[in-house]
Amino acid sequence: MSSITTTATEKYIHISPYFIIYLNAFISIFGLFGNLLNIIVFINLRSFRRNPCVFYLMIDAIVNIGFSITANSNSFIWCKIKTMLINSFSLISMLITCFAALDQFFATSPHYYLRRRSTLKLSYRLTILSIFCGILFGIPIILYCDIYSTVGCIIRNSRFFFYYSYIHVPLLYGIFHSCISSLFGFLAFRNVRCIIRQRIQIVRRRLDRQLTAMVLIRIIFSIILSLPYVIYCTYYLNVIDFIENSVQVISIRIIGIICSSLAVINTSASFYIFLIFCTRYRHQVKFVLTKKLWKQLRKKICLRHNQIKPANEPSMNDYTTEAKF
């Protein structure tokens, strides 16, 4: 029995790193593509350019790109930097999601003094605050993490380990993120249901409804996909030292692979979630890719071939179509 267990342990140690690398790389490729498309759509649509909530969603996409690139690097040489960046990106993304929900609560509020809070100036400040918090939290990881050839980076400082395992992961990533983002997300959703009574332009109403739906969908899937990893980390950090059975260790780490993959999906799936659940966003993506970017590309190709007049000039119909968005 012990020989079978030893063989299974050796196979796990040999196979699991490659499985994690290829699985996360596959997820991250789709995530990079999706997050880039999110940024392209947010930049190219006129109705999105000066909207604070869209700014938060764009920053979230940029941070998720950074997370995807960092998570797929497996060099022991910069293990501490990788651990710091992953935790910093995760914290920034979490705060940005909460601020996006807060902004939509402000933007859809029936009270004018709350609607005034939804500004780009405030979004810039809160984004800078999020980045500062991410960097501030990353510094102790650089200082208190050590590299071990068998397991990678682990926290050696007992006080920081206590903070990380009992406060940062379960309270900040788990309870705080879930409660704050879902609270303001559902309050914004409640405001949107009553928005027809407010004296707001129809275009603005449609945009507020769309963005509230997108933020709420992002929050729901973020909680569903990240909460298993939070629970796993809390359990693993506090129990792993007391488990001596190698089969139990393997079982726990297999669960960890599944949970970490869900966390990577959380940073990669926002574009596809928006595309599936938001009809208006599908039309916007189609408009940007076919009516704007494709026409610009054809125009450049025509100019390279010394064509005097571009094959496709912007028509009034294009401007009218964009105005709908």
Topology:
Blueprint: H1 2-44, H2 46-49, H3 52-71, H4 79-107, H5 112-115, H6 120-144, E1 145-148, E2 152-155, H7 158-193, H8 202-239, H9 246-268, H10 270-277, H11 279-304, H12 316-324
Antiparallel strand pairs: 1-2
Main location: membrane
InterPro entries: GPCR_Rhodpsn_7TM
Transmembrane segments: 20-43, 55-78, 84-102, 122-143, 163-189, 210-232, 252-277
**Would you tell me the structural class of the helices and strands?**
mainly alpha
Series of H and E elements: HHHHHHEEHHHHHH
Tally the structural domains: 2
Mean pLDDT: 82
Largest sheet: 2 strands, antiparallel
User: Quaternary state, please?
Assistant: single chain
Percent of sequence in beta strands: under 5%
> In one word, what is the shape?
globular
- Count the beta strands: 2
CATH architecture of the largest domain: Up-down Bundle
> Which strand order spans the largest sheet, edge to edge or round the barrel?
1-2
**Tally of contiguous helical segments:** 12
- What CATH first level of the largest domain would be assigned? Mainly Alpha
